[in-house]
Sugar phosphate isomerase/epimerase (Neglectibacter timonensis), 297 residues
Amino acid sequence: MKLGISGQALGEVMSFADIVKLGKKYGVTEYEIWPCNAGADWDYREGSLDDVKKTARDEGVHICCVTLGAGFSAEAAADPGRYAEYLLHAVDAAAELGAPVVNHYCGAVNPGTQPDFNVLEQYWRAPLERAGKLGIIMALENEAHDCTSTPEKMRRILEYFNHPNFKTNFDAVNYFHASCEGFPGAYKALRPFIGYVHLKNACLYDPQAGQPDENRGEPMSGLYAPAPIQYTPIPEGAVNIPALLTSLERDGEYTGVCTLEPHTTPEHVEEFYAKESAWLRSLGFFRNQESGRDTAC
């Protein structure tokens, strides 16, 4: 597996070329892009991939994932046909960039707490058929406040679509956000379906602990609601990320990129990258990536 960086965290304040230069300081050669990295709002076809392709070529890096964030927007998801076009264009962008994965979301697509498969068919079936033809994985990311909030709900969706190109972006901390056991519980439930991985960490909010305001997130769902989640650098959080990575490497079913996704303000993002990448490598994960060689955790 390799370590990646998401272009979202700095995408509104920094060009993609500068994000890559920053990431390479920490030995990262894999990058997840968002529409903002291509000069678009929701639709990749309204932006341009030329600069992304040129940067990747000139810097010798790889686009590991194309993300469509439109699933968070009620406006973008209001019309199923239009949203399906956005997702189709993201799949096409992944094929053009050589990215094996499209990451997408469910929140405004199916805003209820249970999946409505008649609705999901309208939004996802046509893009999934295109992804299958192009060899792209559509990875659905779990979020704490929609019908993907628990491992059981996510598995229901994955088993319903029952397609080799429909998998999940496994984010253990998003399950923690939903008051679920991100590891080992969620991992055990979803292990055969993992098509991408996001890495971050968090803990419970403690109003007496002086936790940084800039790392505070949205309210928890489930048992710990309505207290906010408190994001942390990976070494300082409640979720056992090293054990997750050890299990991924041992089980061998997922051998792709594990992408850092710090949840903080832009001015603190590099602090997270520096601390997290150094700590993970000190534990033996991703050690060979800095020299350009493939690595298992």
